[in-house]
Design a protein that fits this description.
Elements: H1 2-21, E1 28-32, H2 39-55, E2 59-63, H3 70-77, E3 85-90, H4 91-100, E4 112-127, H5 136-145, E5 151-154, H6 157-170, E6 175-178, H7 182-191, E7 196-200, H8 201-210, E8 214-218, E9 244-252, H9 257-271, H10 274-281, E10 286-290, H11 292-313
Parallel strand pairs: 1-2, 1-3, 5-6, 5-7
Antiparallel strand pairs: 3-9, 4-7, 4-8, 4-9, 4-10
């Protein structure tokens, strides 16, 4: 009787182990918590194609935009943890929104399995060409000479924090002008209706190259390969300033380690391919890869940092 039970137990367990060993046996869904067409969606589509090619199964994008990424994050957190639902997301869902909002329907640490860090969209501090400042130091001096006379546009918590941290760190008064998105913001800075803007490379780089706006600094800790001649905010004198839109690949909590390892390896292999790096750079994206452990530590640091930034910059959701 005991032998029969042992055989039955093995028969039940064996197919499960075989299925895991053969992962993936079918297509994989990659949830993106933003609408189609933006820079984040573009990065996700490039990597979905590359990951699918390496895993031998298609990776299909599922755009779940809305509510500052909460809709997509909630769907990913509730998905079955078998590796067939991935979550390509940004610091918005994993650090910024959790720092801003209470009672979220997900926990950014507990409800997700880190798989791989992908990279960042650096931000640019840029001014209208008629603004008489050709460096951050000159911009700060100009702002001090006319408190409240300069304006900057923002359309989300990331850009609010970028602007308020800049103003607070330099002890200057700049008028914040809220917008509903990047198109009207950039239209107004190009037209001179606002003085300056913090903008991601995807949107800002074409305007920099055309001369429509003048870049003064990048907001990441190291200079950007896409604008190597432009200093960082830290080089311009603002110690510790490091704000960007970072991206990473997660899954729901509880994904088997062997699946995490395989998907992570495929992702990192893609990010080490020069042709892929070049395609991502065209979107204004800088590859900064890291494995699951690196991402886990990064996510915890970013959540803590954004909680501090939100408190210091007095950011609230209306």
């Amino acid at each position: 009787m005991k032998r029969a039970l042992a055989i039955l137990a093995w028969a039940l367990i064996w197919p499960m182990g075989q299925a895991r060993a053969e992962f993936p046996e079918r297509s994989i869904t990659m949830i993106v918590p933003l609408a189609a067409g933006g820079g984040t969606d573009g990065v996700a589509r490039i990597l979905a194609e590359q990951i699918g090619r390496r895993l031998g199964q298609p990776v299909v994008i599922d755009n779940r935009g809305g509510a500052n990424g909460v809709i997509g994050a909630q769907a990913a957190a509730r998905a079955r943890p078998d590796g067939y639902t991935l979550f390509m997301t940004t610091g918005t869902t994993q650090a910024i929104t959790p720092a801003l909002m209470r009672n979220l329907p997900y926990d950014p640490i507990r409800d997700f399995t880190p798989i791989a860090r992908v990279g960042v969209f650096p931000l640019i501090l840029a001014v209208n060409p008629d603004v008489p400042a050709r460096s951050v130091q000159e911009l700060v001096a100009l702002a001090r000479s006319q408190p409240g006379g300069l304006t900057y546009g923002q359309w989300s918590a990331l850009y609010i924090a970028a602007g308020r941290s800049f103003a607070r760190g330099n002890g200057i008064d700049i008028l914040e002008v809220p917008y509903r998105g990047s198109p009207p913001t950039m239209s107004d800075v190009v037209a001179g209706r606002i003085s300056m803007v913090f903008v991601d490379m995807t949107v800002g780089l074409p305007l920099v190259r055309s001369g429509a706006i003048r870049p003064l600094a990048v907001t990441i800790a190291q200079r950007s390969a896409m604008l190597p001649e432009i200093p960082t905010m830290q080089e311009a004198g603002l110690a510790g300033y490091d704000i960007s839109a970072w991206m990473a690949l997660y899954g729901p909590a509880g994904i088997p380690q062997e699946v995490v390892d395989r998907v992570g390896a495929a992702t990192l292999e893609a990010l080490a391919t020069p042709a892929v790096v070049s395609r991502l750079a065209e979107l204004g994206f800088e590859v900064s890869p890291g494995n699951a452990a690196t991402l886990a530590a990064h996510g915890e640091r970013e959540l803590a940092r954004w909680r501090t930034l939100v408190a210091e910059a007095n950011i609230t959701i209306e």
